[in-house]
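User: Can you help me understand a structure? I only have the sequence.
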Amino acid sequence: MCKGVPSGMPIKLRSLGDRADPAQYPQRSTRSRRPIPVPVNRLCEEARRKIPPGLKSHDWKLEIPDGTLEASIMSNFSIGVDLGGTNLRIAAVDEHGQLLEKITLGTKVARGKDHVIHEMTGAIQQLAAKHENAGALQGMGVGVPGIIDIKTGMLRESPNLPGWANSNVREEIEERLGTRVILENDANAAALGEKWLGAARDVEDMAMLTLGTGVGGGIVFGGRIFHGMTGMAGEFGHITVEPEGVPCPCGNRGCLEQYASATAVVRMAREAISSRRAGALERAASSDPEFSAKAVYNLAIQGDVEAKRIFGRVGRALGIGIADLVNALNLPMYVVGGGVSSAWEAFSPFIFEELRQRSMVYAATAPATLTDGHGASAQVEPGGPTKTIITRALLGSDAGLYGAARLPMIGNS
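Assistant: Let's start by predicting it. Here is the structure, written out as C-alpha cells:
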C-alpha cells in the first residue's frame, strides 16, 4: 500500500510499459535473476497527486508485473434519466460530473407507459453493463414531468405523459431493473443539476425557474432538493402575478405560467395578431404552421415592436414572481433555465426593473450596478459583501439529466 494515500481509492497501479530508470538504482550482476527494483515511493507520490480533492477512498491494488507502474483512477458513477414528453435521455455520469455516455430516444408516448418504461430500462441496463468496469454503480435517478408523491413514487399528474396519472412509476421501473430507483420531478432535477455543475455550483442554497411549455421550479438547500410536505415545493409557475389575469388550467387566474412560458409567448403573439396590430407576427405565423416562441424571439431581436412588447411582459411577470421568492427565501442565487431562457437578453432587463421596484430584500443585496433609487431601491442602501444573484442557467437541456444522475450520489452519501 502507498503510505499517505487514503484507503478506498479505486486506483490500480499497473504496467503501461514505462520502465523504471536503471540509472537511479544500483546495477546488479548479469548473473542475478532478481529484477531491478521499482521506484514505488516515487510512483506512489505521483499517484497521490492524481487524486481529485474530496474523492472517496477505496482499496488500492498494486500490480508490479515487470517493474513498471502507472496510477489510474476509477470513479463511481450513476445513471440519470430525463423523461420528457418528446425525448427520453439516459446518461452515465461519474461522481465528478464527467459524462461517460448519453443515449437519446424518442418518447413514444402514444404506445403507452409500458413501452416507454421498457425502452428506458433497456437503455439503463445497456449503459450499466457497458460501464461496469469504470467503477461502482451508485444507482439510478429518473426525472419526470409532473406532480410526484416522493414517499410512494406515485406520479399523480403529468400533462406531458397522458395516461400516466396515478401510476406507481417508481415501482414499475424498480421491478424491471431489480434495484432501487430515485424518482424526482424534472424541474427539481434541473435545479440540482445547476447546483452541482452549473450556474449555482459555488453556492449551497438556490432556487431555479424552468421556462418551457409551462413554468416549473426547484429549491435546493444545503446541496439537497427541498420537497416540502408532500414533494410539491417549488411550483413557481403557479405564483399569482396578475390577480385578475389569464385563467390557468390549475384553476387560478394570472399564474406566472400564463405569462412566462413558451405557450404564453405564442398565445400573446396570437392575441396581438387578432388585434391587427402585429403585421410581422402575422406574416411569421401565416408562413409557419409550427409558429413558436422562437419565431417571436427572432422578431424581437430584429426590433419588431410587438414582439419586444411580448418579451417585456415575460420579463415583468418573472420579475414579480422572483421578487416574491427573494422576499420569502432570501437565497444567494436564483437561476432561470428552460428553453425560453434562450431569449434572456430580450426579457431579463425587465426582470431587474421589477425586482428593483418590488423587493426591499433585493434592493438591500443587489449588485451596485443594478440599483436605481426608485421603488424599493429608494428605501434601502445596498451594502455588504453578500449579494442576491439572478442569472441564466448554464447547463441547458442537460441540467435535468445531470441532476437525475446526482440523486443517487447524494442519497448514498
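Now, to help you interpret it: DSSP finds twelve helices and 15 strands in the chain. The two ends are 26 Å apart (CA to CA). Let me know which part you'd like to focus on.
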